[in-house]
Design goal:
Elements (H helix, E strand, L loop, with lengths): L1 H16 L8 E4 L3 E2 L9 E5 L3 E10 L6 E10 L4 E6 L3 E2 L2 E2 L1 E9 L2 E10 L4 E10 L9 E7 L9 E5 L5 E7 L8 E10 L4 E12 L3 E8 L5 E8 L12 E9 L4 E7 L5 E10 L4 E9 L5 E2 L1 E8 L4 E9 L2 H4 L5 H5 L4 E2 L1 E8 L5 E19 L2 E20 L5 E7 L3 E4 L9 E5 L2 E8 L8 E3 L5 E3 L11 E8 L3 E8 L2 H4 L7 E2 L5 E3 L2 E8 L2 E8 L10 E4 L5
Antiparallel strand pairs: 1-41, 2-41, 3-4, 4-5, 5-6, 7-8, 9-10, 10-11, 11-12, 13-14, 14-15, 15-16, 17-18, 18-19, 19-20, 21-22, 22-24, 23-26, 24-25, 27-28, 28-29, 29-30, 29-31, 32-33, 33-36, 34-35, 36-37, 37-42, 38-40, 39-40, 40-41
């Protein structure tokens, strides 16, 4: 009787405790398929609804090098089974059009764009066709727009951008230089979500086209257009030990026919990375990035600026150097004392938070090119090798009042050769108050190999990623309070005794779909599609946890 009572208590306690335990994200893979061919980047996700998602690829016709490729959209159900595959032609009559890569999915309809440069009239004609959601009906190519272009390269200088709520669609055209003007010029055409034109405007900026590089452009829910670029200074403008460039931001309001220019500058400090995101709810433009005291390419701190889109005023400007403890995550104490800086970090994400704050995510990325020569029988051959490095991830928290708070490091070392870093980098997902980072890693990095440096911080001895067969899939989970946990999401194929030759998860091909990620696995001509699903409490209980001192 006592044993039965003890067993009953154990079962009851287990039932009470289990719901509180964290559940890790779970891979749910579909069938294994043999691909005929695909566009670069894999089966690109181009749209989804509650019951289906759509991927873009190509289908090969013909034999060996004599075959041709046709673009195709695949309608997949949520079990990753292809429901319908529809090829579409890039021919208009006997004329081959150039697909622009712009496919917009709205109201269960695909809007596909292509163009053709006409050399006789120096114009690029943009065409559009539609496909309905079940892929059963396809329209003919119709002329959508035209633009002046001096050559085929100029003809490619157009793009479509959507507002966050899909109510506005911007056709952006970078105009070629003319004999009468060498200034940077763009044309904006704004449409609603039915592709009804709302307005058109040609703008000329007071900068030399050869000295201004356009980096990014976006449209707000209200239809205002944002354009960010970098201008190189002239010889007369340059000052010794000062940045030789300026970042210029242009905000165009068509309702007021008003163009505002903002100079993004930190004085003597060098802006080395910059990005922005639009807070449509509060009508704010949030810019963030890194700066250096020494020169381009390095970074020693974070900056943040916020612009009120309604008043066209900067209401927050902040800078903050990385803390000493943070710098010691990346280099020795001796180098920190000599004021050495970090280098080669690219901003990957800017995440808006419900409280009005912002989280910046960056990854160290660089390529090293080496050449070697070998002479045999008087004949010299030269070999060029590309080394791709994807290393530490850094996360910076910016509070709702604009103050730059904690910074933390997610350690990893990934190095590959002559593959474009295809299996490197990470998959990323945000759910509730947590950010998930999933990447290939060395299993030794999860065997409690941490040395305690201070009471607040752990120093990790990071081992580089081995071969994919021996690598684990690691997971780091960060919340908005600055806690990070690290754990093994999936053991290595070697430990799982998985045979070589089966498809392998490709982190950087993961795409957001509501509360989950659409994931892909590839090997040779084999591939799988799947979902990575996330539980609310996933990721706790890892081998490491720490908290940064946030500035309130």
């Amino acid at each position: 009787m006592k044993n039965k009572l003890r067993i009953g208590l154990v079962i009851l306690i287990t039932c009470l405790i289990l719901p509180g335990f964290a559940q890790k994200p779970v891979f749910k893979w579909g069938r294994l398929y043999q691909k005929q061919s695909m566009l670069s980047g894999g089966n690109s996700l181009i749209g989804f609804n509650d019951v289906n998602y759509y991927t873009l690829g190509t289908i090969k016709h013909g034999w060996w090098i004599f075959g041709s490729y046709m673009p195709a959209i695949t309608q997949n159900d949520n079990r990753h089974t292809p429901v319908t595959v529809r090829e579409f032609s890039n021919k208009r009559g006997k004329v081959n059009l150039v697909l622009s890569g712009d496919i917009i999915y709205l109201d269960n309809t695909f809007h596909i764009f292509a163009s053709k440069y006409n050399t006789s009239i120096d114009k690029n004609i943009i065409y559009k066709k539609t496909l309905n959601g079940d892929l059963s009906e396809e329209s003919d190519w119709e002329e959508f727009d035209e633009m002046y272009a001096k050559n085929s390269n100029d003809a490619r200088n157009f793009d479509f951008m959507r507002s966050e709520d899909d109510s506005k669609i911007l056709l952006y055209r970078n105009n070629p230089v003319t004999k009468t003007s060498k200034k940077e010029s763009v044309t904006y055409k704004m449409y609603d979500n039915k592709f009804k034109q709302l307005w058109e405007k040609k703008l000329e900026f007071d900068v030399d086209e050869k000295k201004y590089d356009i980096l990014r452009y976006s449209v707000t829910n209200d239809g205002q257009v944002i354009l960010l670029g970098r201008r190189d200074l002239t010889k007369k403008e340059k000052v010794k030990k000062m940045p030789s460039y300026k970042y210029l931001l242009y905000l165009y309001d068509n309702q007021k026919d008003q163009l505002e220019e903002f100079q993004i500058s930190l004085g003597k400090m060098y802006i080395t990375e910059i990005s922005y995101t639009i807070d449509n709810k509060n009508n704010k433009l949030m810019l963030a990035g890194f700066y250096s005291n020494k020169g381009p390419g390095n970074l020693t701190g974070t900056f943040y600026q916020r612009i009120d889109i309604s008043t066209k005023k900067v209401d927050i400007e902040q800078t903050k150097e990385f803390e000493r403890d943070f710098m010691m995550d990346h280099m020795t104490e001796k180098k920190v004392d000599k004021n050495k800086e970090l280098h080669s970090y690219d901003i990957r994400e800017l995440i808006k938070r419900d409280d009005g704050g912002l989280t910046l995510v960056a990854e160290q990325y660089y390529v090293v090119v080496t050449t070697s020569s070998n002479t045999v029988n008087g004949r010299t051959t030269t070999t060029t090798t590309y080394h791709y490095h994807y290393n530490d991830i850094i996360v910076v928290n910016i509070n709702s009042d604009g103050k730059i708070g904690w910074s933390l490091t997610i350690p990893k070392v990934q190095h590959s050769i002559n593959d474009g870093g295809y299996m490197s980098s990470y998959a990323f997902h945000v759910k509730d108050d947590k950010m998930y980072f999933i990447f290939y890693d060395n299993p030794d990095n999860y065997n409690n190999n941490t040395n305690k440096r201070t009471n607040k911080r752990l120093k990790i001895n990071v081992s580089p990623m081995p071969s994919l067969h021996k690598s684990v899939i690691g997971m780091a989970v960060v919340d908005y309070e600055g806690y990070v946990t690290r754990s093994v999401l999936q053991k290595s194929n070697k430990d799982l005794k998985v045979k070589r030759g089966l498809p392998l998860f490709v982190p950087k091909l993961s795409r957001y779909m509501n509360d989950k990620l659409l994931v892909q696995a590839h090997y040779g001509k084999k591939y799988q599609l799947g979902f990575l699903t996330f539980d609310n409490n996933a990721g706790t209980g890892g081998v490491e946890s720490r908290k940064k001192n946030a500035e309130k």
